[in-house]
What we know:
The complex is a heterodimer of chains A (174) and B (148).
Chain A lengths: L3 H4 L20 H4 L1 H15 L4 H14 L3 H13 L4 H5 L13 H14 L8 H10 L2 H23 L14
Helix pairs in contact in A: 3-9, 4-5, 4-7, 4-9, 7-8, 7-9
Chain B lengths: L9 H18 L2 H14 L3 H13 L4 H6 L12 H14 L8 H10 L2 H24 L9
GO molecular function, one term (chain A): peroxiredoxin activity
Protein name (chain A): Alkyl hydroperoxide reductase AhpD
GO molecular function (chain B): peroxiredoxin activity
Amino acid sequence: MTTETDTGAGTGTTTAEYAPEPTPRLDWAELAPDVFKAMIRLDAAAGQGLDPRLRELVKIRASQLNHCALCLDMHSKDALAAGESVERIVQLSAWEESRHFYTGKELAALELTEAVTVLTDGFVPDEVYEKAAEHFGETELAQLIAAITVINAWNRFGVTCRRTPGHYQPGQHK
Amino acid sequence: MTARTTYMDEGVRSAMRALSAAAKKGFGDPALAELVQIRASQLNHCAFCLDMHLAIAREHGVPQKQLDLLAAWEEAGDVFDERERAALALAEAVTVLTEGFVPDEVYENAAKHFDEVRLAHLIAVVTVINGWNRLMVSRRIPAGSTEW
């Protein structure tokens, strides 16, 4: 049984019950250990050379678009632990209207993140790609695309297997 | 049409290949893996991946009729059996995450046709082709290109 008081999520002045925590569907990492190991390797490779703060913003935004609760839990906590501001994380889902919280480079990365994440609605527009290419050199841009691709992959495992959020400790998987 | 860039970090490329191999090996049904990968590539509009996986599917003996009707598999009657339909429905749900989640009925139907190990690898196959789709569409690698 979960209450606001015992999760520490609220003010502690109410004992209103939260809905029960869902049960995960599938422990894919246990069932497909070679796949999990390859994902860890891919994740490490895709992060090389990218600013860690930018990388977390990209991961949070893609996880918002893909509705991955586990990934939001993990990357918001990692971002906060890395010194990211609450404000920039909160504003991220409306970044187009809160551009003044982010640098031009971050905005270009966020725009590319959306285009690469929502492929089903179209392609990656030239203006989005070109703006990213103005801010990122060839190798850094390749790593940004790789990082967006990899968080999209984690999102797919997280959502499909219904991995439960709320238990992540910052830095747990680092 | 020329690629925007053909550059990819070698570490990323080799990790993607290892991931892809692990997913397909564990799934163990190459023909169905191709159907699923083609369907995801249709949804993600990846010309390079469609070209590549349609060729591989033919090599694996996937009937031309299935390839022709894949984009409308739900309306294609008995061209696809129940197991294939369960895998395709899951592939679609896992690919189009931005519009919602993976519905219980889709997941449960897949779980009826595939044991847990196969199911985990099927999810991996769909996830990996979604990865390749992103890497290819973003860089606009032309269909049939040998440099990617």
